[in-house]
């Protein structure tokens, strides 16, 4: 890996380089995506089935687009590793327990004068979960997207995922969906699946929100339909930043950097450290691991494109750099990681100490692995139960509670030139119908 002595100029260049990976910079795909969305919106199932034939080479129609109970049962028998079922159940338990702590409840605050203020929390009625297919099928993502919705109390969870040429869905995906409690699964992927969820077709009813990862076409489609439905985010490529000092184990750090670099050629893996000795050792271990790992071509391209080892003069400079990058995953491997963590403002998920490696969060610990990318951790949060609820304000005033406020409300309304607003209050306390400007 390249080692850079960090200064303001090099940091600015690296930040600009990382932002190039954002889906917002792939507008050359937008016309194709918009054409797909428009076709599905206009022609419904007909367009949906044709795109599935064109892109996935599968013959899908109204009679087989929905996954059957028999297909789900068959998926358990098709698993390459039957032990995966028990692993999924253990992971599911941890994820559920973590997200149950996020639940919010309606509340009401009543006062002696007869006024009641409050907040009503209501789960979304219908949520669509997009799940990639083929080699990019990740059962862990199924759990992370579905379980918070279940905990929130969503009435119906719909999953869409592309079929193989044989019209079947990846068995790992089906098993994870069944264990997590998905209500219905449809065999459709790509931008056309997002269109079906956003607009509805003869086979697939419109949803209120769409969540889940996908390729650039899926990401741009989600961005385009926002407003017709809600979405979780427009996710970019995976990224990890390790913040380390001289106490870190270089072998562990190298392995953790590669855990994200293997996702794809646009993934970012960055070490920020105060130790030149650690930087050199990590670089050596990275080269050694890459030569032995299965996805070495992807790993090498990812590191060549967006892999950095950044050396700073002080820990504060390293922390400032981590906050500026606002990485999706941040590992802190310092002498006192909890103290370092208190100075971190921007990160999707924070892993503390040398034994808290990023894959622990991906699969098993419980916190959600759907995280903000491309610097959006400065203003976005991980997927949570909050993403599957909506809140309504509650206001109830008695006449006795309203009267002392009536003059002030009317003055406020008149100051804004909204005399009908003022009149709405006035008529409750004055009998005449003369509106006073």
TrEMBL record:
Binding site for Zn(2+): 260, 263, 362, 421
GO biological process, one term: L-histidine biosynthetic process
Reaction(s) this enzyme catalyzes, per UniProt: L-histidinol + 2 NAD(+) + H2O = L-histidine + 2 NADH + 3 H(+)
Record has Oxidoreductase as a keyword: yes
Residues the entry annotates as binding NAD(+): 130, 192, 215
Cofactor details (free text): Binds 1 zinc ion per subunit.
Pfam families, alphabetized: Histidinol_dh (PF00815)
Cofactors demanded by this protein: Zn(2+)
Main EC class the enzyme belongs to: oxidoreductase
Signal sequence, start to end: none
SUPFAM superfamilies: ALDH-like
PROSITE patterns for this protein: HISOL_DEHYDROGENASE (PS00611)
Known pathway: Amino-acid biosynthesis; L-histidine biosynthesis; L-histidine from 5-phospho-alpha-D-ribose 1-diphosphate: step 9/9
Sorted UniProt keywords: Amino-acid biosynthesis, Histidine biosynthesis, Metal-binding, NAD, Oxidoreductase, Zinc
Catalytic residues (positions): 328-329
Enzyme Commission number: 1.1.1.23
Positions contributing to substrate binding: 238, 260, 263, 329, 362, 416, 421
MF GO annotations: histidinol dehydrogenase activity; NAD binding; zinc ion binding
Gene Ontology CC annotations of this record: cytosol
Function, as annotated: Catalyzes the sequential NAD-dependent oxidations of L-histidinol to L-histidinaldehyde and then to L-histidine.
PANTHER family per UniProt: HISTIDINE BIOSYNTHESIS TRIFUNCTIONAL PROTEIN, HISTIDINOL DEHYDROGENASE HDH
Family the entry assigns: Belongs to the histidinol dehydrogenase family.
Protein name as catalogued: Histidinol dehydrogenase
């Amino acid at each position: 890996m390249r080692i850079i002595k960090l200064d303001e100029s090099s940091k600015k260049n690296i930040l600009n380089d990382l932002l190039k990976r954002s889906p917002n910079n792939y507008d050359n795909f937008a016309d194709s995506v918009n054409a797909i969305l428009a076709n599905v919106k206009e022609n419904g199932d007909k367009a949906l089935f044709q795109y599935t034939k064109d892109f996935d080479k599968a013959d899908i129609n109204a009679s087989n687009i929905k996954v059957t109970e028999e297909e789900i049962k068959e998926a358990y028998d098709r698993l390459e590793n039957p032990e995966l079922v028990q692993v999924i159940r253990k992971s599911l338990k941890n994820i559920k327990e973590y997200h149950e702590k996020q639940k919010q409840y309606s509340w009401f605050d009543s006062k002696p004068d007869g006024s009641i203020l409050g907040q009503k929390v209501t789960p979304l009625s219908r949520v669509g979960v997009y799940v990639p297919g083929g080699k990019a099928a990740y059962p862990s993502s199924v759990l992370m997207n579905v379980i918070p919705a279940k905990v929130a109390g969503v009435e119906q969870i719909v999953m869409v995922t592309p079929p193989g040429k044989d019209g079947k869905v990846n068995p790992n995906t089906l098993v994870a969906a069944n264990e997590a409690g998905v209500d219905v699964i449809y065999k459709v992927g790509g931008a056309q699946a997002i269109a079906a969820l956003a607009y509805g077709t003869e086979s697939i009813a419109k949803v209120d929100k769409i969540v889940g990862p996908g390729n650039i076409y899926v990401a741009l489609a989600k961005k385009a339909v926002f407003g017709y439905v809600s979405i979780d985010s427009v996710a970019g490529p995976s990224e990890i930043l390790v913040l380390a000092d001289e106490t870190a184990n270089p072998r562990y750090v190298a392995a953790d950097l590669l855990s994200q670099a293997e996702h794809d050629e646009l993934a970012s893996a960055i070490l920020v450290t105060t130790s030149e000795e650690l930087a050199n050792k990590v670089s050596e271990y990275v080269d050694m691991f890459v030569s032995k790992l299965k996805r070495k071509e992807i790993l090498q391209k990812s590191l060549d494109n967006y892999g950095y080892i950044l050396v700073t003069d002080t820990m504060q400079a390293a922390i400032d750099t981590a906050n500026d990058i606002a990485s999706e995953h941040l590992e802190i491997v310092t002498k006192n990681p909890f103290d370092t963590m208190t100075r971190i403002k921007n990160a999707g998920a924070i892993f503390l100490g040398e034994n808290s490696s990023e894959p622990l969060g991906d699969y098993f610990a419980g916190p959600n692995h759907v995280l903000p990318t491309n610097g959006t951790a400065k203003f976005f949060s991980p997927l949570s139960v909050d993403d599957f609820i909506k809140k309504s304000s509650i206001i109830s005033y008695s006449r006795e509670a309203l009267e002392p406020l009536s003059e002030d409300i009317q003055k406020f309304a008149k100051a804004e030139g909204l005399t009908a607003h003022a009149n709405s209050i006035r008529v409750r306390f004055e009998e005449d119908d003369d509106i006073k400007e």
